[in-house]
Amino acid sequence: MLHIRVSTPAAAALVAVALLFTTGGQVSEVAYGRTVTQAETAGAATTTGSPYLATHLYFGTGRHNGEPPITDDQFMKFVADVITPRFPSGLTIQQGRGQWRDKTGSINKEISYELTVLYPAGEARRHNPDIEYIRRLYCSMYGLESVGRADVRAQADF
C-alpha cells in the first residue's frame, strides 16, 4: 500500500512529479499534511456517465495577404450555417487569444475560437466526416492553413 506524507506545497509538488514518473501517471491525489493511501484515492477514479469523445476545434481569425480578420459575425454565421446542422444536440464555443507558427515560420497572434462538441464514443466514425468537412470548409472559405483538432476521451452525463 502506498502512503505519502506531505508537509509543504513545494514538497507536495516534488512528490507529485516523482509519483507521476514512477507510477506512469496513476496518482489521483496528493494531500497536504496528511497521509493518503491508494484505497482512499480508489473512489476518486470512479466516474459517472457514459463514454464520450470531446472534439475540440481551434479556429483562427487572422488572414493572409492583407485580408481583414474574420469577424465575430462571420464566425457565428459559419457556426449557424455549417456546424449547428451537423451537431444539433449542442456545442460550446469559447473565444480566446491564440498564436501559432504558420508555414512561412511567422508567429501569428490572433483572436481565436475553441469549439467543443461531445458525442458518444461509439459514434466517432459517424461524426468524423462532419468534423473534417467543417475544418476543410473553414480553411477554404477564408484562405487559412488549418483548423486545429484535439479529440479527448471523456465520461459524460446529461
Can you walk me through this structure?
This is DUF3574 domain-containing protein. InterPro entries: DUF3574 (IPR021957). It holds the Pfam family DUF3574. The chain is an alpha+beta fold. The protein folds into 2 domains: 43 residues, no CATH class; 107 residues, Alpha-Beta Plaits (2-Layer Sandwich). The protein is built from 4 helices and 6 strands. The strands form 2 sheets. The protein has a 4-stranded antiparallel β-sheet, with helices on one face. Strands 1-2 form a two-stranded antiparallel ribbon. A hairpin with a 5-residue loop joins strand 4 and strand 5. The radius of gyration is 21 Å and the shape is elongated.
Any key phrases for this structure?
2 domains, 158 residues, 4 helices, two-stranded antiparallel ribbon, four-stranded antiparallel beta sheet
Number of helices: 4
Mass-distribution shape: elongated
Provide mean pLDDT, rounded.
80
> Helix- and strand-based class?
alpha+beta
Order of helices and strands: EHEHEHEEHE
Tally the structural domains: 2
Give the helix proportion (percent range): 25-40%
Q: How many β-strands, per DSSP?
A: 6
Radius of gyration: 21 Å
Strand order of the largest sheet: 4-5-3-6
CATH architecture of the largest domain: 2-Layer Sandwich
By CATH, the topology of the largest domain is Alpha-Beta Plaits
Q: Quick one: biggest sheet?
A: 4 strands, antiparallel
List low-confidence stretches.
1-32
Protein name: DUF3574 domain-containing protein
Pfam family, one: DUF3574
